[in-house]
Write a structure and sequence with these properties.
Strand order of the largest sheet: 3-2-1-4-5
CATH architecture of the largest domain: 2-Layer Sandwich
Number of helices: 16
CATH class of the largest domain: Alpha Beta
Structural class: alpha/beta
CATH topology of the largest domain: Nucleotidyltransferase, domain 5
Length: about 425
């Protein structure tokens, strides 16, 4: 029997759509995007949001005053960009503070000329930004033949600069090589290292972890069924869970995660203003529901592993696991290595999604809803786009897709020798 979507997951989806509806062209587009990230059908989500709008007295959706104000602001921004196009483009072209290859410089000047700017004007802007180039130098470059190395470097640098400000811009040297190769570029690790060093591009470095688990030493604990082996031959065999905190203007928000050891996919998550048992229970229920929706339900034999936090050793959570037929596994008290996969995933979350310079943030985290929005965006990228070295530089979704595709491919019958 199909599971019903958890009420908290449903309400969170409604909040995300209502809070960010003005960022989309219409309600349908918002429901398609956010529903896809949360694994919820667009028609169901749209129906829920419409009902919420009726309940809140907002039957007509976004007011015309808001739309008109957005239109006016966009017009002002467009006029500002046109008035400062050379300086703005030069700022992006010279990001990193190093001298770009000659082919890239020529291409930039050609592009600005196509917008109606004079060569001398373009060169003056570049010179003012630290790139010494004159109109005569540019014209001499136009008649010369660039080297193959310069041409190849220009293509790779262009691809590297395109990742700045995107989640992929957080990749380090090794993962950036895999990313560029996936996009059809023939690159070596040495060349990428040299160019990233020249551009002063570095991968995101994790900060020091902070302890959030408060163990209940008096509670009865399940045995450790994992014993630091955070691998699994198939999906839905071993899940690990943990939670962390995020500072907001309104106070602390706690975010719980459930991760599948097979693919490193985050199958469930939940955010709450309180650090109680429902925090981890709702994350587990979301994971079970999402697996059901994907057509790959978690069956008997699933192990749920966590640390010895009071939320995981509570009677209520133990009863939830028992009702779902899930075996509980708990590591020792005070040893982060006993739940290192969950700790590592939370470290990525804090580094890639929560830091002030995160590409998933557009402003300060003021309240619970802001954390939910950033978390939903990051988990969607983490599962569908982010490359993971532990699974052959694939994404979790790709890794699981290949697993199930191999199961569905019939084996060839071998003919006995005559």
């Amino acid at each position: 029997m199909p599971r019903r979507i958890p009420e908290e997951t449903k309400q969170r989806a409604i909040r995300l759509v209502l809070n960010h509806l003005d960022e989309y062209a219409n309600l349908t587009e918002a429901c398609v995007k956010i529903g896809g990230q949360l694994g919820i059908g667009k028609e169901s989500l749209r129906r829920w949001v419409r009902q919420a709008q009726i309940d809140g007295g907002q039957r007509d959706g976004t007011s015309s005053d808001v739309l008109e104000e957005n239109k006016r602001l966009r017009k002002e921004i467009r006029e500002l960009e046109e008035a400062n196009s050379i300086l703005r483009d030069a700022g992006g072209f010279l990001r990193g503070g190093t001298r770009p290859p000659i082919p890239m410089t020529i291409a930039f000047i050609d592009n600005q000329r196509s917008k109606g700017h004079r060569v001398t004007q373009i060169c003056d802007v570049l010179t003012g930004q630290g790139l010494q180039v004159s109109a005569r130098t540019y014209r001499s470059w136009k008649t010369a033949t660039p080297s193959h190395r310069d041409l190849d470097d220009a293509i790779i640098i262009d691809a590297l600069l395109a990742t700045v400000g995107t989640p992929e811009g957080m990749y380090g040297r090794r993962k950036m090589v895999a990313y560029l190769r996936r996009h059809g570029l023939v690159v070596s690790a040495r060349r990428v290292d040299r160019l990233m060093r020249d551009l002063e591009m570095n991968g995101r470095v994790r900060g020091q972890g902070v302890r959030t688990t408060i163990p209940d030493r008096s509670a009865a604990r399940a045995p450790d069924l994992v014993e630091r082996d955070f691998t699994a031959p198939i999906p839905n065999e071993r899940w690990v869970a943990d939670f962390t905190y995020v500072r907001t203007w309104a106070g602390f928000v706690y975010v719980a995660f459930v991760i599948d050891c097979f693919s490193r996919a985050i199958v469930g998550w939940h955010a709450s203003a309180s650090m109680t048992t429902p925090l981890v229970t709702n994350a587990l229920r979301m994971g079970l529901w999402r697996r059901d929706q994907a057509g790959h339900p978690a069956n008997a034999g699933l192990i749920h592993h966590s640390d010895a936090g009071a939320q995981f050793t509570s009677v209520s959570f133990a009863e939830t696991l028992a009702m779902e037929g899930i075996a509980a596994s708990i590591g020792s008290i005070g040893d982060a290595y006993d739940n290192s996969l969950a700790e590592s995933t939370i470290g990525l979350y804090k580094t890639e999604a929560i830091r002030d310079d995160s590409p998933f943030r557009s402003g300060p985290l003021k309240q619970l809803e802001d954390v939910e929005w950033v978390t939903a965006q990051w988990i969607d990228w983490y599962n569908t786009t982010r490359l993971h070295s532990r699974i052959d530089d694939l994404t979790p979704d790709e890794y699981e897709y290949l697993y199930y595709a191999n199961l569905e491919t019939p084996a060839h019958t071998e003919l006995a020798p005559v």
